[in-house]
Amino acid sequence: MKKYNIAVIPLDGVGKDVIPLGAKAMQLAQQILSGFELDFQYYDAGVEYAVKTGKMCEENLGEEVAKAHAMLCGSSGHYDVEMSKSEYPGYKTGMQVLQFLRSGMGNSIGLRPLKLLKGIDCPLKNKEEIDVLLVRQLAEGFYIRPGHMIGEDAAYDTIVVTRSTTEKFADACFKYARGRNGRRSDGKRMVTLGNKHGNVTCFDFYRKIFTEISANYPDIELHFTQVDALAEHLIKDPDRFDVIACENMIGDIIGDIGAYITGGMGITPTADVGGVTPQFRPNHGTFPRAVGKGFANPFASILTGSLLLDTIGNDCGDDNLRMGAKLIQKAVEYNLTTGSPKTKDFGGSANTFEVAEAVFKAMQVVKF
């Protein structure tokens, strides 16, 4: 039986409530199915930790995380409502942990599965199923600024993308498409590059590199779509997409649109991969209004646990982990379709922990 080490880093705000619930779902899957063993190690880091200690994280966090098979993380940022009204010492120090866990660990590829689960009312008309994989480049492009300035009368950012990083990104996108069942409309395996070529030089470079890499994948079609059209088509007809590839900032925006049409931030998991230790976290932020109130939705954290098991299972060729991922997802769908307790954002009145417990009970009875 293979053993997997999971570093759990709840970070700030509501993460301290919901991230342990994602870990508990994985632990319960281990107990129900057996066939794999998970060892969870908890670490403290983030803005609140920085305010209290003057450091962004515990000593040797990087060394410890590098030993793990995966990280289950929350978000770093505001951890109470009053924080946004004043400057807290150590705020910037605490925020550094986000880049440390992502780019510092070499995770340059963001996976944003846009999947509509059974029992979720989709805002799109007559839509009962969505299954698209958004892949976001995290290491370069907008948000990563090798040169920038803000003054009284002007400001600028220098945006850089490089061949080696873009080739790695493009290659990953085609490989993900090869491992999927194709787009829902006709089963065609394809990669759609969404950017703004013809307007931004870096995006023209993206198009050039993706065209070159596509020659290695004759079984995968490559399409180009301007980002404004991509946003429209994703809302009108998501079935026309299989894998969507986006630069950093564009991927952030399109990912939020995708989250909206598949249930919202309260149910959407994410993964940052490609480096030493992959990072998995809910798509939502620290949600300071929910801290200590018990109304945050635990689904995103629980499904992040499912995404973690599925991704590591695929990487390691472990069917037992993949079965664990499927068990967690089916239990969430059971909750959504059987009138089980739900939080307010999903039309219910139950608190965070009541909903999580209902999912854990469902894991004992669902069939898949």
- The overall strand count is 12
- Major sheet size, sense and barrel closure: 10 strands, mixed
| Integer-rounded radius of gyration | 20 Å
> What is the overall shape?
globular
What is the CATH fold-level name of the largest domain? Isopropylmalate Dehydrogenase
Estimate percent helicity. Answer: 40-55%
Strand order in space, largest sheet: 2-1-3-12-11-4-5-10-8-9
Question: Any idea how many domains?
Answer: 2
How would you spell out the order of helices and strands? EHEHHEHEEEEHEHEHEHEEHHH
Tell me what the CATH architecture of the largest domain is: 3-Layer(aba) Sandwich
Distance between the termini: 22 Å
The CATH homologous superfamily of the largest domain is termed Isopropylmalate Dehydrogenase
Structural class: alpha/beta
Summed up, the helix count is 11
Fraction in beta strands: 15-25%
Structural write-up:
- The structure is a single chain.
- The chain is α/β, with parallel strands linked by helices and about 375 residues long.
- The chain has 2 domains: about 1-105 and about 275-368, Isopropylmalate Dehydrogenase (3-Layer(aba) Sandwich), CATH 3.40.718; about 120-260, Isopropylmalate Dehydrogenase.
- Helix content is about 40%, strand content about 20%.
- It contains 11 helices and 12 strands.
- The chain has a 10-stranded mixed sheet with strand order 2-1-3-12-11-4-5-10-8-9, sandwiched between helices. A two-stranded antiparallel sheet has the order 6-7.
- Helix 2 (about 45-55) packs across helix 4, helix 9 packs antiparallel against helix 10 and helix 10 (about 320-335) packs across helix 11 (about 350-365).
- It is globular.
- The chain starts with a strand and ends in a 5-residue tail after the last helix.
- The model has no long low-confidence stretch (mean pLDDT about 90).
